[in-house]
Amino acid sequence: TIICVLSLVLGLVESARTAGARLYLRMASDSAVSSVMSYYNRNLWDRYQLLFLEYESEAAIKETFGRYLDFYLEQANLYPARRENVTLSGMVCMMDDGGRWLEEEIADYMKYRLPELAVSGGGLLEEAEQVKKAGDFRTLYDTCRGSGRTVRKLEKTGQEIEKSLRTMEETREKLLDAADEERTAAFKRYAASLKRELKGFPGFVKRFQIELERLETENQKTEAEHLGDETASGTLGQEVSACSEVIRSAKERLTEYQQMEARTERNLELLEEACELLDMETDAEDEEKETDWGQVSEYVEEMENLESMDSGPRDKKKAASLDRLEELFDRDLLEILLPPGTEISQNAVSLKEIPSASKYQNDVGDPDIEDGGLLNAASRQIAVNAYVPLYFSSFLKREGSEPSVLKYEMEYLLAGKKSDRENLKDAVNRVVTLRGAMNLLFLLNSPGKKAEADDLAAAVSAGIVPAQMVLSFFILTLWAFGEAVLDTKILLAGGKIPFWKTEETWKTSLSGLLDQSFLREAGENSGDGRTYTEYLGCLMFLMDRKTRNFRMMDLIQWNIRTGQADFSVADCAYQIEIEAEVLQKHMFFQKEEYKGTVYAAGSY
């Protein structure tokens, strides 16, 4: 009886001890993995408030985990066990999933700054909607400007053809007069000029066809665009319809021009025969030979008259002013936009062997993937955009004693170029474009300014109504761009510009735009609105998040390496998963060791 009772009691004790051993191993593995995660990079935390485990190799992680686990297994207690094997079953790194885990770390940190953010940017969600609307108008702005430029090139090429046709007819008339008056020198001069025009005509037609095909391709691409804003979508539809009419009309003109090509070839043949009859290339000994001017006149009269279809723009002075304005806006405007006496940083870096150039950049991972974490994708986006100005410098925010490889870091996040100058130039151009898009919205809702643009379009076009509509939108984009130039000058001088324009805050006149006198205006700071740095943040709402995340890693790696030369974001882990095989022994059963597996995971 005693043996049976003792067996029962000891069996119950062993069962309880076995359950305790499982809990002890769980506590030991959790403690060990926490100890491993305590090896986060201190430099990364001190500078960017980011917690990531920097490791030399996976073997080093397993060795560290095993060392801390052994401390518990070696204790003299009721849970005798020894470690047999450690496996790193999973690891999530900073560069995985398009940099999603960098966003998670930033979001976790920014939770503690939300009270501060509530004061400076409580309307971040509303701002996101405004920026999305600005993005729609930026697409519209780019489309209208691109279509307008192509239509203008198409019209200019058509005007060159018409000019060539008029020149050919005028020269033909002069040839007839020279033949009637038997003036050999004049005939030769006019014949040479006419030959050049006849031979150059097919080239003009080919250029017209190329511009037409380019416009058709751009219009088909534009037609596939879908914009969320009602005003932007409606204007885009009008642009597509007008371009379609221009294309239809231009195709008819192209057909006529191609038919004229055959006639110009025949005219060239007749001209060559007339010149041969005149013995233009005879030797000096044949110069006394009498010329049959009657036959020469017959050849010239037999040449077909090729009539032109339009006479070019009604107001050539305004058309020339518009051409000069286009040339101005195609140039580098950085020196015009920066405050006088500004010295641009000459810092530059190598773009080789950086996170954004690594194989991870091409992974299919998406930072928008959700797994029920603390913050959803939209919240993470807002958190990151609030974080960036706090820890990355810009043209107007360079305070701090921490060494930085690039001075204009926010500009690098947008542009990704190798030098500060290139990044500043690209970022400023984007700010100008964004301001131009928002200015375009104001112009589209201003009947008076739209009427001015319509009048100018009629004056500088060749009289084709659909082309006038396209050019009217194009002129509005140039006007919006001119206003954006003044806006950006104020921003780069440290001022503020409101997100949306009103009649009171609009500064540039159309006449001042055409004569470029608007460049001499100083521009007044409105006092309220958004700063240059805030506009950079708005642009980050519109850029690809994966690209932004990897460029943040570029800057982090460069800057941490100023104090730790071997630092690499590729060796920074956000989460690890470890499995350990442990051999345990019973205390009250006479059995061999039995194997158990313990799982542990650690993350920040």
Mean pLDDT comes to 85
Distance between the termini: 57 Å
N-to-C order of helices and strands:
HHEHEHHHHHHHHHHHHHHHHEE
Radius of gyration: 38 Å
Which structural category do the helix and sheet elements fall into? alpha+beta
The DSSP helix count reads: 19
Notes on the structure:
By secondary structure, the chain is of the alpha+beta class. It is 62% helix and 6% strand. It has helices at residues 2-37, 42-48, 58-73, 100-110, 114-121, 124-180, 184-223, 230-277, 293-302, 316-330, 334-337, 377-391, 409-415, 420-444, 447-460, 465-492, 510-514, 532-542, 545-560; strands at residues 53-54, 81-93, 572-584, 594-603. Helix 4 (100-110) crosses helix 12 (377-391) and helix 6 packs across helix 18 (532-542). The longest helix is centred in the first third of the chain and has 57 residues, at 124-180. The protein is elongated and about 150 Å long.
